[in-house]
Every structure is written in C-alpha cells, then in structure tokens.
Amino acid sequence: LGWEQDFRGFRHRQDRPTLIILDDIDSEKNTYSASSREKLYKWFTSTLLKAGDRKFNTVAIGTLLHLDSLLSRLTSPKEFPDWDKDIFKAVIHFSERKDLWQTWGNILFGRGDLYNGESGLKAADKYFEANKQAMLEGTEVLWPDVEDYYQLMKIRYIEGTYSFDSEKQNDPTN
Questions:
Q1: What confidence tens digit (pLDDT) does each residue in 108-132 have?
Q2: Going by DSSP bridges, is the β-strand pair 91-93/19-23 parallel, antiparallel, or unpaired?
Q3: Kind and range of the H or E element at 21?
Q4: What is the pTM of this model?
Q5: In this structure, which long-range contacts are made by residues 25-29, counting pairs with CB atoms below 8 Å and at least 24 apart in sequence?
Q6: CA distance 174 to 85
Q7: How far apart, in whole angstroms, are the C-alpha atoms of residue 56 and residue 49?
C-alpha cells in the first residue's frame, strides 16, 4: 500500500501485519516542503506504527533525500533509539590523490588541462588509464561488481555533487 492510503485496521483474515516494509517512502512529493515532511512523519507515527500486530517489525529502505526527511529521522541517533540503523554509501573511502582527480576533471570538462593535446571524456578516460593505480589509491566502494570507483566518479563529476551525495552517499545537503 502507498503512504497516502489508509490502512488503519488492515488485516489478513484475523491477523494484523507482523512485518511492514517501507521501500522509498521518501519522494519529491512528500519531502521537499516542511509541511509535506511533517504530514508524512505524522502518518508514520500515528497510523503506520499503530497498524501492526503487537510484535511487528518495520523495515525502511530508501535514499535520504533531505536532512529532515522521514528516513533521515529514522536513521538519526537522536530519534527512534530502539531501531537498528544502517546507512550505506556507494563510496566508502575516496581516493587519496585529489590532485590527480582534479586534473582528470579539468581534462573532462576542458578547463585548461589536456591529455595528449585533447580534452573531453575520451581524453579523461585515457588519463585515468595512464594514472589508474595512483588514482585508485585508498579507494573502497560498497558494491564494486555493480559500480566501480571510476564509474562513481564519472557520475559525481558529470551529474554534480548535490545529486551524488544524496543518491549515492545518502548524505543530502540542506
């Protein structure tokens, strides 16, 4: 059921829910204004948390979209102290060689630095291959089989840190 649907008294035959899973409960619709965030929070605490069996579990999964979103509040150490909380970040450790990544970014966007007289994505790819070992020094990613460090850095540089920090690092800016 969606968050705007009323499931007060929801049952399967005589049983109330024993497990409630919230998947991406935060969205643009209910996160980017203070009133919509408060409405979702009130629904969560007054309706959802009262809907389950006496011994039910709630699992909330999603992306932190705002510093005061429901998921941010659920993962805050100051709220819901009886909940187990984990926040996953796509990049666990960033590269130690910020200087090489700065040069790579300059080559990518054509901001002065060139690689073999060229700029742009192909030139940046070649620069990365030539400096790969040093550029990956100290890096660690959450799920390397799905997104390696270089793929994540392309997203971060091309799409911007605001989107990257929220969508990939679960670290929204205000």
A1: 999 999 999 999 999 999 999 999 9
A2: unpaired
A3: strand 19-23
A4: 0.82
A5: 25/60, 25/62, 25/70, 25/71, 26/62, 26/63, 26/64, 26/65, 26/66, 26/69, 26/70, 26/71, 27/65, 28/65
A6: 21
A7: 9
